[in-house]
Amino acid sequence: MVPCSSLFHQYYLLFYSLIFSDDWILEKGLAGPFFTSRFSPLANIPLVVADLDLPPVTTITKTSTVKDALDKMLNREFDQLPVVDDHRKMVGFVSLGHLESVLRDGAHLNDAVDRWMYQWTSDPAHSSIQATGQKKRKYVPITLETSLHDLQRFFEKNSVAFVTDVDCRWALGVCTKCDLMKFLTKFKPRSLEQ
Asked: Do 187 and 179 touch, CB atoms closer than 8 A?
């Protein structure tokens, strides 16, 4: 049986490594005796995004209205929705906060979503993301084969991951830090089961 303090320490490190980056923890001198610059609790867990068993993705078409997008997000308690074209290819996403902001600034509920979405500036696998009037951000593909450690690192600078196929065409899921944390609270590493 594993001592309770050891179990607590491992879950404590998992939790803090999700909230703060490893680099930040080290820079602020908050790392405990078992924490090193090469240590990340998720680095040693051989799991991938597919193991999170995310629910089926909900999308909206780029010709849908802002009202349709808001209704979907509010009814399902989502903060973001992938936007797809007529062939179901993912072309970007909308966020609740951004849509509420542009509505305050003069957008209309009947505007098409593609006018206010964050869109890929080219093929998502090699592109950046940009919303009308905002600066570009590099897009980092997250697939079902992405390791949970890489997903954790992604969440150090991003609040949501749009899980796609390897070619970044089809939206397969949406994952947040909360989804990862919920999974980890239920996950029991094999080293702790003995």
From this structure: no
Q: What percent of the chain has pLDDT over 90?
A: 34
| pLDDT at residue 193, as a whole number | 46
> Backbone phi, then psi, for 90, in 5-degree steps?
-70, 125
Confidence category of residue 194, pLDDT binned at 50, 70, 90: very low
Residue 9 near residue 34 (C-beta atoms within 8 A): yes
Tell me: the pLDDT tens digits for 20-65? 566 666 566 665 554 544 445 566 678 899 999 999 899 999 999 9
What are the backbone angles phi and psi of residue 105, rounded to the nearest 5°? Answer: -95, 10
Give the separation between CA 139 and CA 141, rounded to whole angstroms: 6
| Encoded amino acid at 25, one letter | I
**Whether pLDDT at 165 is above 70:** yes
Domains and CATH numbers, the chain: 4-44 (no CATH), 50-183 (3.10.580.10)
Token pair, residue 48, equals 């991938």
Tokens of 1: 């049986």
